[in-house]
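Most newcomers find our protein records easier to grasp once they have seen one. Sequence and backbone structure share a record, each on its own labelled line. Nothing more is needed to start thinking about how sequence determines fold. As an example, a complete record with its sequence and its structure tokens follows.
=====
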Amino acid sequence: MDPMLVPGARVRHPGQPDWGDGQVQSAVGWRVTVNFEHAGKRTMDTRQVALELVEEVRGPR
């Protein structure tokens, strides 16, 4: 399990760029459920798909 894939993390699926950014809903073992902007909720095995973390752009504090 990737310790960065926690609920709330923003990710992209490298093989499905048209799905848009997604937000991790749950992560149990190797199974991660992500809600993507244009594809809805998808569950995947992170041993098969290397999700990419999306860097959040933060404004000035």
In short: The chain has one domain: 10-53.
